[in-house]
Amino acid sequence: MTKLRWGILGCANIAIRACIPGIKQSQTGIVSAIASRNLQKSQETAAKLDIPKAYGSYEELIEDPDIDALYIPLPNHLHKEWTIRAAQAGKHVLCEKPASLTADDVQEMVTACEQAGVQFAEAFMYRHHPRYERIKAIMDSGEIGDIRGIHGVFTFCNPGDSKNVRFVREWGGGALYDVGCYPLSAARMLLGREPEAVTTHAFFSPEHDDVDMMMSGLVEFSGNVALTFDCGMWAAFRNNVEVLGTLGRIEIPSAFVTPTEESGHFNVFVGNDQRVEEVPFLNQYSLQADDMAYAAWGEKSPRFPASDAISNMKVIDACLKSARERSRIVINQ
Description:
Gfo/Idh/MocA family oxidoreductase, NAD(P)-bd_dom_sf, 333 residues, Rossmann fold, six-stranded parallel sheet, Gfo/Idh/MocA_domain, single chain, oxidoreductase
C-alpha cells in the first residue's frame, strides 16, 4: 500500500508524545524525517523514535523530495511562515492549533496552500474520533430535546515553567490560543454554524508576559443558543463538554484528551434515565493522519475544510479583543 511520507518540522513535545506515534499507527502514513535547528537534537529524536532521516534546519526538510506532507508543531508565531514555505515546496500541511495568530494570517496560509494545490489542515485531533458523529446524531435525533446551550472547559496548571513558549505574548502565548480554542471549535462543530458575538473576561498575568492565564466567555449563536467556556494554564486540570437540551443532556467527561480506553466514553441523561455510550479506543492522531492522506491522494474530501481554520480563528480574535477591551464583540464571518 502507498504511504504518505511525513516530515516533522520541529521536536516539540506534542510531536514526540502524540503525533509521531499516531502517524506510525495510522493506516496510511510513515514518518520519514524530522528537523530541528539543532542537528544533535533532531538526530537524538530520530534515533529514539526510529525515524530514518534527521535534519539540522527546517529548510533542508522542506526541500527533501521524498517528503509528501509536513506536520508543523512549532510555536504559534512560526506557523504562517513555515506553512507558506511548505506549500510553495509542494508539501501538504498539517499545522498544530491554533493555525496562527490572526484570521488574516490563516487566510494567507490557506490561500498559499490552495494556490500550490496542496492540502491544509488544522490539528484538532479530537474531532476525528467517531464518538463526535454519535454525539451529533443524538443531538439531531431530538432525544435530548431542543439544544439550549453548550458548556466547555479546558484547563491545566503550569505557571512555574518560566521558559515555556506559552508564556511569550509575541509568540502567541496564552490559554485561549493553547486550550481555549478546543471548546470554541467543539461548539462550532456540534452546532454546525458560526457564532455571532462573544464576550470574555481574562486574567492577564504580569508574571507571564501579560498573556491570558485564564479566560471565561460567552459565545452567542443563532437560535438562542450559546457556548459558555473557560480555559486556563493556572487552574486544575479539566477537559469536559456538556450539551444541554430541553429533555436531557450529554456529558463528555474527557472531551479532547482520551488517554485510556474508558475516558472516551460519554454519558447521556434523559429524564431519570442515564446511559453510558461506549466508544472504541482509537488513536485520534492516527485518524487525523489518515484524513490528511486520503485528501492528499484525492480519494476523499477532508472531513474539515481548510476554511474551518479561518472561521475558528475569527472567534479567537474576537475573544481576545473582548477580553482586552472588556466589551462585547460582534463577529463578521
